Amino acid sequence: MTFIKSWEDFEKAAEKLYLANPMKVRYTMKYRHTDGALVLKFTDDAVCLQYRTEVQQDLKKIDRFMTNLMRHMVSSDK
C-alpha cells in the first residue's frame, strides 16, 4: 500500500472509487500522535488509496472533501 503524495490526486481518486461502487467503499481516518500525522485510507478491497499529511492547513481540505462525500452518501440520485 503506497501513499498518494498530492491531495488533489487523492481526492479525485477517492471520489472516483466511491462513485464506482458506493456500497463497497469504506474509509478510515487515523491521527498518529507520535508522528503528528493524519492518515486517510479509502478502500473497496480491490483498490487501496492512502494519503498522509502533517500540515494543519490540509484539515480544511479534508473536511470539505468529507462533507462532499457525505452529500453523495445521502443523496437520492442513483
UniProtKB/TrEMBL annotation:
Main location, first listed in the record: cytoplasm
Keywords, comma-separated and alphabetical: Cytoplasm, Ribonucleoprotein, RNA-binding, Signal recognition particle
Name of one Pfam family that matches: SRP9-21
SUPFAM superfamilies: Signal recognition particle alu RNA binding heterodimer, SRP9/14 (SSF54762)
BP terms from Gene Ontology: negative regulation of translational elongation; SRP-dependent cotranslational protein targeting to membrane
Keyword Metal-binding: no
Domain of life where this protein originates: Eukaryota
GO annotations of cellular component type: cytosol; signal recognition particle, endoplasmic reticulum targeting
Record-annotated SRP9 domain positions: 4-73
GO MF assignments: 7S RNA binding
Location(s), subcellular: Cytoplasm
InterPro entries, per the entry: Signal_recog_particle_SRP9/14, SRP9, SRP9-like, SRP9_dom
Similarity section: Belongs to the SRP9 family.
Function: Component of the signal recognition particle (SRP) complex, a ribonucleoprotein complex that mediates the cotranslational targeting of secretory and membrane proteins to the endoplasmic reticulum (ER). SRP9 together with SRP14 and the Alu portion of the SRP RNA, constitutes the elongation arrest domain of SRP. The complex of SRP9 and SRP14 is required for SRP RNA binding.
Protein name: Signal recognition particle 9 kDa protein
Organism, scientific name: Daphnia lumholtzi
Classification lineage: Eukaryota, Metazoa, Ecdysozoa, Arthropoda, Crustacea
Gene: EOG090X0OQY
